[in-house]
Amino acid sequence: MGSIEERERIRSRLDAIRGEQDEPVAERDDVGAPWLDEQGERRGADWLPERLRGARLNPGRRSAAMIAAVGVVAAIIAGIAVFRDRPQAQAVPPLPVVHVAQNDSTDPPKTAAVASAADAELVVSVVGLVRSAGLVRLPPGARIADALAAAGGAQDGADLISLNMAQRVADGDQIVVAPPGGAPPPARGPAPAPGAAKPGKVSLNNATEQDLDGLPGVGPVTAAAIVAWRTTNGKFTDIEQLGEVDGIGPGRLAKLRDLVGL
User: Is 261 exposed, middle or buried (0-12, 13-18, 19+ CB in 10 A)?
Assistant: First the structure.
């Protein structure tokens, strides 16, 4: 009897233990609060499936720390990318300084140019057998032929053979057109002045380049320089002005002083 009762007691105890194991045990996270379960159930009751309504997301402390670390690293990488791609200001090279030149040459230079042109103009007297005897104005470098043309040309019967039509004229010259066989024309040029060319001397104001080239120590280059000085500065007024011509030094001037005149 004792053994039967003991067996029944053991069987009843085993059945009680087996019954407790069959009952569902509600698991609860150590970290979560009870009100989270109720709030989650209320939010998910409408659209979550029945089997997922009791599910909850709880990564735990370690996983939350890892997620935060990943977020910090991502933020640092994004900041570096933004800093690297930011627009950089380009240095602008300095602009060149522009200086505006003031044009002070208005009326005075024009007046000076007109005066210079007037000074360069040649005034020559043409007399004798010409159609319009008198004073004619010629440009620099004009010749006797130009002077006769400015005076209307020679009349019939004028002796043109005695005139060198290619000879250059100087300011203040006088050209006499005589009849054939008439008296030789007087010396061209203004009235003799101190230092004027004497017979046998070469006139600095009337001589051509060929005439000057015949002087001792004067070649074609120096002769052209003498004529150029005469064209630029006007007539010679002193023999010593030969020293202002390119190529004529004191020694050459001493040799020419007795061979030339005005």
Answer: buried
Residue pair 139/121 in contact by the 8 Å Cβ criterion: yes
Query: Does the global pTM surpass 0.70?
Result: no
For residues 161 and 204, state if they share a domain. Answer: no
Query: Is 193 within 8 Å of 262 (Cβ atoms)?
Result: yes
**What is the tens place of the pLDDT at every residue in 35-66?**
555 555 555 456 656 665 555 666 677 777 88
Q: What are phi and psi of 221, to 5 degrees?
A: -70, -45
Tokens of 77: 């990488």
Domain count, the chain: 2
Q: Which residue has the tokens 């010679």?
A: 236
Domain ranges, residue 120: 112-190
Taking alpha carbons only, the member of 189, 188, 205, 192 closest to residue 241 is 205
Tens digit of pLDDT for each residue in 249-258? 888 888 888 8
Could you tell me if residue 186 is inside a domain? yes
State the Cα–Cα distance between residues 221 and 212, nearest whole angstrom. 10
Give domain status of residue 17, yes or no: no
The CATH number of the domain holding residue 185 is: 3.10.20
121 in any annotated domain: yes
